[in-house]
């Protein structure tokens, strides 16, 4: 089992990153908040979860152990697979997600792509007691301002990241258009757009 990687970020294409560890490149898929913390050409440490399928080995990466633990708890919910779990962690910050569970806030949960009313209800029922396993550290939100790859304009890359998360092109474009005058870099655009969409 690959549990942790430390290396240099050599490629970024939301929500994927390629991390070079002593000459071996590991392709990982991250929630967008964790992706936004990576810098091209800079060292990074991520905590990982390996999913083995018949047709592929998928490596998911997270900024910390607590975020990974939340991902693993989500996988225990009936009908929630790795992609939907990643979408949930991308759709809102862990602290906000936990608040939704505690407050039984189905309305905000169903605004995340792939989450219908039945899935939201299952999340509430099955996670209500399990979230007690999480450390209080999960409720902290990183505030670091970081820059992503600049192959695309910040607006275009932010739109691409939202579409990779599952939003329709029109939704992604509208969400970014609403915040593009307030932010300049990709990470801030993504955060602002996600925050606005789950209000």
In CATH, what is the class of the largest domain?
Mainly Alpha
Number of helices: 9
Compute the CA-based radius of gyration: 16 Å
Structure summary, number of beta strands: 5
Main beta-sheet strand count, sense and barrel state: 5 strands, antiparallel
Q: Average pLDDT value?
A: 84
**Helix content range:** 40-55%
Q: Could you give me the name of the CATH homologous superfamily of the largest domain?
A: 5' to 3' exonuclease, C-terminal subdomain
Write structural notes for this entry.
With 199 residues, this protein is of the alpha+beta class. The protein has 3 domains: 59 residues, Nucleic acid-binding proteins (OB fold (Dihydrolipoamide Acetyltransferase, E2P)); 75 residues, 5' to 3' exonuclease, C-terminal subdomain (DNA polymerase, domain 1, Orthogonal Bundle), CATH 1.10.150.20; 44 residues, Helicase, Ruva Protein, domain 3, CATH 1.10.8. It is built from 9 helices and 5 strands, in the order βββαββαααααααα. It has a 5-stranded antiparallel β-sheet, with helices on one face. A hairpin with a 4-residue loop joins β4 and β5. It is globular, with a radius of gyration of 16 Å. About 8% of the residues have low confidence.
């Amino acid at each position: 089992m690959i549990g942790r990687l430390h290396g240099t970020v050599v490629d970024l294409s939301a929500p994927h990153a390629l991390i070079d560890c002593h000459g071996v490149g590991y392709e990982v898929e991250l929630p967008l908040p964790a992706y936004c913390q990576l810098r091209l050409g800079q060292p990074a440490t991520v905590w990982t979860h390996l999913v083995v399928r018949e047709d592929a080995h998928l490596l998911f990466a997270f900024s910390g152990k607590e975020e990974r633990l939340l991902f693993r708890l989500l996988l225990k919910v009936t009908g929630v697979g790795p992609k939907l779990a990643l979408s949930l962690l991308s759709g809102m910050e862990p602290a906000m997600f936990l608040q939704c569970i505690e407050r039984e806030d189905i309305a905000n949960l169903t605004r995340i792509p792939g989450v219908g009313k039945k899935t939201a209800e299952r999340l509430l029922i099955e996670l209500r007691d399990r979230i007690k396993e999480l450390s209080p550290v999960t409720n902290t939100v990183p505030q670091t301002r970081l820059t992503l790859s600049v192959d695309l304009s910040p607006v275009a890359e932010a739109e691409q990241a939202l579409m990779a998360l599952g939003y329709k092109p029109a939704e992604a474009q509208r969400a970014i258009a609403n915040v593009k005058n307030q932010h300049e870099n990709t990470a801030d655009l993504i955060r602002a757009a996600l925050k606005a969409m789950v209000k």
